[in-house]
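HUMAN: Mind sharing a backbone?

ASSISTANT:
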Amino acid sequence: MFILIFVSSVAYSAIIIYSFNLIPYKWLCDYDADISNCPAQKLLSFPLHFFLIFLFALINLLLIFSQPHSIFDIFTSVMMTGILGHICLSDILYLIIPDQHILLIFILGFLNVNPENAGYKLTGIFAGALPLLLLLALGLLLKDREYIGFGDIKLMGALGFLTGSASILNVYIISSFLSGIFFLILAFLTVIRKIRTTPAFMPLAPFISLAFTACTQSL
């Protein structure tokens, strides 16, 4: 079974990398950006980017098939692996989360809407988006600075709709823990290496994606 999952992860990772290179460049730019003035599109290198995507896909598939799931749950999980793989790559390379991918997550959420869970899913949108929206507002009011991007807000709202309010709160906790560890390591390396400049923004989508995997795929 593991060999089959391993081979499937290799193939799926190659598909994710290849399909990412086919994304229209305008998806990876801000709405108000002049595409002609944007940096050149960065085509992914298979050796350079494949390993991280492969690990992400392998972890997801192992968790998906570690216990029985419905066909719909398997379909949703496999689709989310590819969507989140794209989102992680675009956030790392461009600090952009394409709205087209956010829309796909909402569509997956709509496929599972019924009268019993509709309210739960709607509150999930607010539970996912509202905390980051408040953080954005506080940053603008107090420091005139955006501490969070709209892409991250929309991503958390979409994941909240897909998973519901309770699960998205767990995603918040785990992603905050993972990103906190990463930033502490980055700060330590900055001090050790005496680096004077640090990036103004850091991609949060990889931490959110890992937290989503930990909270949902293992259920």
Summary: Residues 165-193 form the longest helix (29 residues).
